[in-house]
Amino acid sequence: MPAETGWRIAIEQIELGHARIDWRDATTRPATALRIDALDLSLQKLRWPVEAPSPVKLAGRLAPLAGDGDAARGEPASFTAQGEASHRAAKLALELKALDLHWLAPYVAQALLPQLDGRVSLASTLDWADGDAPRLALSQLTATAEGLRVSEA
Q1: Which end of the chain, N or C, is less packed with Cβ atoms under 10 Å?
Q2: What CA–CA distance (Å, rounded) separates 106 from 87?
Q3: C-beta separation of 140 from 124 below 8 A
Q4: pLDDT tens digits along 35-72
Q5: Neighbours of 109 (CB within 10 A)
Q6: Helix (H, G, I), strand (E, B) or coil at 27
Q7: DSSP per-residue string spanning 71-124
Q8: Integer Cα distance of 99 and 118 in angstroms
Q9: Is 126 within 8 Å of 151 (Cβ atoms)?
Q10: 152 pLDDT band (50/70/90 cuts)?
Q11: Residue 33, CA atoms < 13 Å, CB-side half-sphere
Q12: Torsional class of 140: left (φ above 0), alpha (ψ -120 to 50), beta (otherwise)
């Protein structure tokens, strides 16, 4: 008699579109309030037990929240991640465009005395794996800065 194989799950596609996440962190001084919106996530060919990495696409925008909970004025940053991922490994092309460093000031101030201002854009390839030979590598990293200023806090 063959052994029981357990649960098997096959999902061809999961789509999450136009989602929003409001982030409020009262542990920073000043408190941080950011919004991720226009959040789109696509996962394809999900299997359990996992047979192979699944195609992944993620895109969205990031901006500070105004005091009333609405998104603040100004141009949001945008981000994308695209590639393949599983519970044991991921290979993703990552891109972040026009991130205003001022939005991250409460976090940066915890580790860096000078204040940073300006906008940065980053692109890279992420290669991560778990297991007997774990790895985490960023390759093909490119970075650009616009209006970068370093000043005393």
Answers
A1: N
A2: 32
A3: yes
A4: 999 999 999 999 999 999 999 999 999 999 977 555 56
A5: 16
A6: coil
A7: BPSSPPEEEEEEEEE-SSEEEEEEEEEEEEGGGGHHHHTTT-SSEEEEEEEEEE
A8: 8
A9: no
A10: confident
A11: 10
A12: left
- 3 contact partners, CB below 8 Å, separation of at least 6: none
Burial of 35 (0-12, 13-18, 19+ CB in 10 A): buried
How deeply is 139 buried, as exposed, middle or buried, from its count of CB atoms within 10 A (0-12, 13-18, 19+)? exposed
Helix, strand and coil percent figures for the chain, each rounded to 5: 5, 65, 30
Lookup: tokens for 26: 């009262």
Residues facing residue 115 across a β-bridge: 151
Element (DSSP H or E) covering residue 33 = strand 32-48
Phi-psi region at 128: left, alpha or beta (left = phi > 0; alpha = psi -120 to 50):
beta
How far apart (Å, rounded) are the C-alpha atoms in residues 140 and 114?
A: 28
